[in-house]
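Data deposition worksheet. Section B asks for the primary sequence of the deposited chain exactly as it was used as input, without tags or linkers unless they were present during the calculation. Section C holds the resulting structure in token form. Section D is free text for depositor observations; keep each observation to a single sentence. Incomplete worksheets are returned to the depositor.
Section A, Depositor: J.P.
Section B:
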Amino acid sequence: MTGRLSLLALGCFALMLLLPSSPARADAIDGHSCHNKEGYLSIRGPDIVTPGGVHMQGDYGRHSFSYVAPSADPHAGETINMILMNEYTVHLTVGAAGETPPQVWHRCQAPVS
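Section C:
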């Protein structure tokens, strides 16, 4: 019986090695996002680099983020709300929820300076 269990365990291990692995999925809003007209932003916990290049803090939730746009940014003084839709897409709205249609932002690489 012990031999059969060892053989079964070895077979399961070999099967696991043969199965394709999948890439890690983004399950948090943290990271770099780009929009073709609005530019680039970066979120890391409560820290954000806004499209205007301002380093500041906002209200962080694992799948959401909001902040009041600084004077250097488009939409200065407005509340910016973001929600992670999937591993590649963030929806951004300006002002109160439903006030504007969402902008679709996509994951991107950090800009090189």
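Section D:
The chain has a mean pLDDT of 82.
Residues 24-107 form one domain.
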